């Protein structure tokens, strides 16, 4: 690990009042949740258009649900890792700490984070295609596929933003406002290619925030980031936290 960069990241965070963290699939990789892109990425094996679009769901809701059932099973079987836990702890360390995630796995909440801005929805939530009501259902497997709404009988769909769909307005508005107001923005485990989420760090940098990227690979954000820490979030975040603790006592 690059100890100089870990120290520099801790230095940037020390004294920062408004901190934002944006996470992607990479934060959950060490828990055993597959990422979307890269060598073993989900989109290498599965065609996104056949599974994660409204058209795919209309054409074959059972197939789409089977895929989400498989993913729900993967997520149910794993635990949050030290990266999730450090971010949960940091909510109490900074005067303002906003956690924004593109992940739908709910692992941040399981690690103790509250009020997470889930830009792409949540795999444990189901939405009625007729009424728009959202229910949480953590059963795995679900008793019957595809599931139906208990009040009106219409199909239930995963409460997840699919390709071609818009993000929840209030959630993305809060995410942009927090990014714009931040002193330091951490961007952890995202390939930084899916917008509007990928625009958040550029907005933060444009508003004067220091941007720290944590990722084993370079991304389109790397050239803009003030610091790029190459490696696994589950190792780097605890290392920064340790330095932060040391610095805070100094
Ligand atoms: P990706 O799969 O595109 O990118 C995962 C990133 O995590 C890559 O840049 C990896 O290098 C990095 N990574 C892998 N292991 C890591 C580790 N241990 N620590 C830190 N980083 C690591 O995932 P996202 O950027 O989250 O959208 O993808 C964005 C969106 O694309 C997803 O939310 C999903 C997908 O289509 C929806 O489902 C709407």
Describe the protein.
The protein is of the alpha/beta class and 250 residues long. It has 2 domains: 3-32 and 80-120 and 167-249, Rossmann fold; 38-77 and 126-160, SIR2/SIRT2 'Small Domain' (2-Layer Sandwich). Helix content is 38%, strand content 17%. It is built from 11 helices and 9 strands. It has helices at residues 3-13, 26-29, 42-45, 48-51, 54-59, 61-76, 82-90, 107-110, 169-181, 200-206, 233-249; strands at residues 18-23, 96-101, 117-118, 121-128, 134-136, 156-160, 184-188, 210-214, 227-229. Strands 3-2-1-7-8-9 form a 6-stranded parallel beta sheet, with helices on both faces. A hairpin with a 5-residue loop joins strand 4 (121-128) and strand 5 (134-136). Helix 7 (82-90) runs parallel beside helix 11. The radius of gyration is 19 Å and the shape is elongated. The mean pLDDT is 95. 2'-O-acetyl adenosine-5-diphosphoribose is lined by residues 24-26, 29-30, 35-38, 41, 52, 102, 120, 161, 189-191, 194, 214-217, 219, 232-234.
